[in-house]
Amino acid sequence: MSRGVRRGTAWAVLLSLTASLLAACGSGSEAGGDLTTEQVTLRFTWWGGDDRHKRTQQVIELFQKKHPNITIKGEFKEWNGYWDSLATTMAANDAPDIIQMDELYIGSYAERGALLDLNEAGKHLDTANFDEKALATGTIGGKRYGLPVGLAMYSIIANLDLLEKYGVPVPDDTKWSWDDLKTIGDQVSKASGGTVFGVQSPGINDAAGLGIRARQQGEAMFDADAKVVLPQEIAREYWQYILDLSKSGATAPPSVTIEKASAGLNQSATATGTAAFGLWWNTQLTALTAASGARLKLMRLPGETQGKAPGAYYKPSMFWSVSARSKYPAEAAAFVSFLANDEESAKILLTERGVPANQKIRELIAGQLKETDKAAKEYLDTVPVSDPPRVTPNGASTLDTILKRHTEDVLFGRSTPDEAAASYIKEVQSEVDAAR
Amino acid sequence: MSALDELRQLRRGGAQVRSRDNRAAFWFLAPWFAGLVFITIGPVLASFGLGFTKYNLIQPPRFIGLDNFARILTDERLHNALGVTFTYVLVSVPLQLACALGVALLLDKGLRGLAFYRSAFYLPSLLGSSVAIAVLWTQVFGTEGLVNRVLGLFGVEGRGWISDPDTALSTLIVLNVWTFGSPMIIFLAGLRQIPVVYYEAAAIDGASRWARFRRITLPLLSPILFFNLVLQIIHAFQSFTQAFVVSGGTGGPSDSTMFYTLYLYQQGFSRFDMGYASALAWFLLLIIAAFTAINFWAARYWVFYDD
Fold this sequence. Notes:
The complex is a heterodimer.
Chain A: H1 3-24, E1 40-47, H2 50-66, E2 70-77, H3 79-91, E3 98-101, H4 103-111, H5 132-136, E4 139-140, E5 143-144, E6 147-152, E7 154-159, H6 160-165, H7 178-192, E8 197-199, H8 208-216, H9 232-248, H10 254-261, E9 275-281, H11 285-292, E10 296-299, E11 315-322, H12 329-341, H13 343-349, E12 355-356, H14 359-366, H15 371-382, H16 399-411, H17 417-434
Parallel strand pairs in A: 1-2, 1-3, 8-9
Antiparallel strand pairs in A: 3-11, 4-5, 6-11, 6-12, 7-9, 7-10
Helix pairs in contact in A: 2-13, 9-17, 16-17
Chain B: H1 3-50, E1 53-54, E2 62-63, H2 67-74, H3 76-107, H4 114-127, H5 131-140, H6 146-153, H7 168-178, H8 181-193, H9 196-204, H10 209-237, H11 241-246, H12 260-269, H13 274-302
Antiparallel strand pairs in B: 1-2
């Protein structure tokens, strides 16, 4: 073999490397332009449980049948890893095109310019059947950063099989208090002899329990200017309550509670039938019923009638957002439109992501709902609510993890409920300030 | 051809061939070199610059002077993370090296099936910092895990080792000690270098086993011990995966597994404060450099070079 041949080979290798690099930077489309006829691949990311993954995959296949030149690549994760992964891909300029977004993060991503104003792609995105109020939940400063997918409400999900087994009567949820929940929880724990607990401890995975308590007393976490206005006394009561549940044995020992918390929906105490009551979204009833195989019942939140106002509200369960850096914003918007409006896709998704915010779709699927989905819709239709809180401000996206750490400190006796309350308020405020 | 002829020919044509070879070599090195510049050195330098800015990953960075470094002094959660990391390094590295040396001494005796044992003990080192092992660890030390099952056999009541802030860090220390394979291999090689005659002479003089270990093995092995110590300390400071996986990325419970690197990661990717994260990265470099310098300084008093 001569040297010339070898050198030729080297050049060939280099050239092909360069060529493949160039090929990777193909041309893109414009948000307001026509849909491309080229072969394109869009990446779509969401969090959720097994049930959601299956349904979403079916909808993707439907869309691909109608648009043979568009391939949708699904990337799905559990909630815990989802946001780390999204932040990393965003930073690397490698964000998925279509993003399932949450109320907790939409402010922080939108204000940093990471999300597309969907109005720019309005040509491909049909929002005619959405209520203006619902659309407003995904709008910040006049720009539409997210299309609300569904509505959900906080609820208590009770395991009727467990209550029956231990001879504990199902409580009347129209007027029960937080103390009632604790009393009943204690009964279940006692009757089971330590294998099943009354309550799945709140305050581990999200700040909902705290928010609900504040709202029931006519208070809120933030005011309109993103200042933390939560009274310290409410936070103190909240952690005292969680501590009392743990001390009396109504909830599992702290280390079990914390272990379950990081394991996701399918390993939760409700899904594994190891707790009789848990705080969940009403729309998670179907997934939890499938996972637990038990008869589960949606119940109203405790303390709704004792306070000044109902703590419950309609929360956009999630949003569809498009990355501001997507190369194919028009196609991404078309897919979002399909997710939100297509009747066939609606019949697959049903209420798994919340009772649809699209009113036409909501009526369309009403007749086809399974018993659990029907219960979720009925819950939404009948339970009294108050106005929703403001969108979580930029910088406060970490408030759930801050809450979890404070709960751990309280459960393991590293700080008192009083100290936790003061520290939590201070820390959340400093996070919001730091993001400015 | 005589050697002289060969030499002459090399002198004549060699330079040309060599330069052509060098050029080809350069082209083949180019991808690696590009990687070094763009993927390693570039970002390292950029992170130095970012340490003086406020940068939220998406909008352009804004210069804020030394604010990030000033924050290092007052950040209480960081100080807790430093405490956790120091504990981890100062406890796990000596234990790990002791295990490595102990097993190396056993294996050095020339057991039958030595190759098998050597591989078996080395295996955890290959797997130790992988996600799979960290996941396995959460199962083994979980409330219904292997450890509690075994304790249950003896009537001891277990606990959630990983979900209890009093024991969570210990499980990570055990994990690090368990990966003693790579220092062990290096110790084994070092032990083979020690001339047998020393031991024979000592045995004739009636030296006990302990005296032989203390007076011959340890001094002659001290350069290897030093090498392992420096390397494993640096390695331990940079531990990340185990804590990340075991705590679900939170460093919990109660920040008890909050390694420095995990805190740094959270600042960058959960709080979107890449400026502070970059400052923290450079501060970690200083800490590791200080530890290494102390190591080298102390080495003068205990490391013995035979030659």
